[in-house]
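Forwarding these from the shared drive since the link keeps breaking.
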Amino acid sequence: MVLESFFDYLSDIKKYSSHTLVAYREDLKQFDAYCNTINDIRDINDVTSKIIRNWVILKMSEGMTPTTVRRKISTLKTYFKYLLHEGIIENDPCEMVVMPKKGEKLPVFLHDYQMNEILDNEESDGSFSAVRDRLVILTAYLTGMRRSELVSLKVSELDFSSKHIVVTGKGAKQRLIPLVDELIEEMKYYLELRRDVVRFDHDIFFVTDKGKPAYDKFIYRLVVKYLRRFTTLSKVSPHVLRHTFATNLLNNGACIEAIRELLGHSDLSATQVYTHNSFEQLVKAYNQAHPRA
């Protein structure tokens, strides 16, 4: 790596403090070691955006704070910008590297094996309320719907023959979400029980024990009560199931653009927060695959 001329530039031209220079030197030393040992990079022109992003992922998975990671990325951006200006490299690999948000809280989610334990339990008594409660959990987990979308879901929006539902999200925007066979069968059985509960005509899919349309707090309390029976998470809510839907899709190979469409996000940045939850999977893959891990 071209270092000494870079530090002369920072010291003489940019007038950086000695403390900053020490921090920059340590950042570049760590990145150089990563390039040489993990990727066997010997030429600075061979450094790519992917290599930098993977380094960032590794640092965050090791428990480094977003603030520290942002500083390290800033070091690399300054360094590669200098190399580009000096004609040492042709392209800046930092252009496609995004800074993690400061203090960003990662979504709380359940692993797929935890959801299997929750959904495969045999504690249901077969009553309407028990069937409905489980179906709310299953629907949220298999579709990623928001709480408000679960509340407003209509029977007429279900298309079992085409295996999808029409979901009306924020801003009245509609999207299609596929239905798996398990969910279709559970919904059909629920609808049979629902006929005996609903005493007046309305199209809302989820209803209370008295047959009235479910409301926001009803769904919230139902999910919280259900999840607390089977998990030890300090925070449980319908949104945890939405986070679980997205995170498990990502960890099992779904592309982030497809997840964005399924979640109904208008901006990809809202979906990218789930990529941080794949750190565990990336580190696991690294430890299993790298001969020196």
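-- next protein --
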Amino acid sequence: MIGLLEVSIFLIPGAIIYFLINKNFKMDKKLKQLLKGRTAEQQEVIKYFYSDGGCLSKNISDSEYEEKVMAKVKSMNFKQKALDKLGIDESQVNEVEPIHFEGWKFDEKKGYIKYGKDKVWRSSIYQITWIFCSSEQVYVYQYTFNMDEDGKKEQTEEYFYKDITNFSSSSSTVEKEDVLIKTNCKGESEYGRRTVDTDLFKITVPGDKLECSMVSNDYTEGAIQGLKAKLREKKNL
């Protein structure tokens, strides 16, 4: 007579196999739903964030994904687009050299994020901000777009120096669920909760604050210091 231990030995491996198959089936079903109705490029992007495919990956690489984003950025003359949307001429805003910030936008609720093989966090959302300064005002143009869908957000803001409380930079932490951790050679992916630090430039006015995604480097640091110096100069007039 087969004992309880022997039955368990036979049943446990079967249960594990069933769980793995069922889990992968659900994930494949979810992927199909995400890809439905998307363009070919958007499908490539979703697959990039959804799974790296393991050893037999046919998905785009980190660098290929970034090239797609940069190609989209270059296809639009954002500086001129900003001037047109704001209704200003560059000769009118020469208090400081026009400034631009750009970088991945990490949102807790929207989009995807992924930690690349090159140890760089990337998002399916990218943001560009242009800032122009006249003798009286600061003009801001911001464009945010999604690579996994058609979503975009375009906005303009105008501030008088006297109304600006502060120009500042900060590092903010965003926590995301269902972030790809790793994929094995069988294409089985592991997901979990992850946090990512993102650098932000902020314009603060009474009762409001505009945040701009950016990458901290010598250029952005110099630009921020220049804006702070200009604000102090205008406040002391």
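Residues 37-235 form one domain. The beta strands are 99-104, 113-115, 121-123, 125-133, 137-146, 152-160, 166-183, 189-205, 208-214.

- D.
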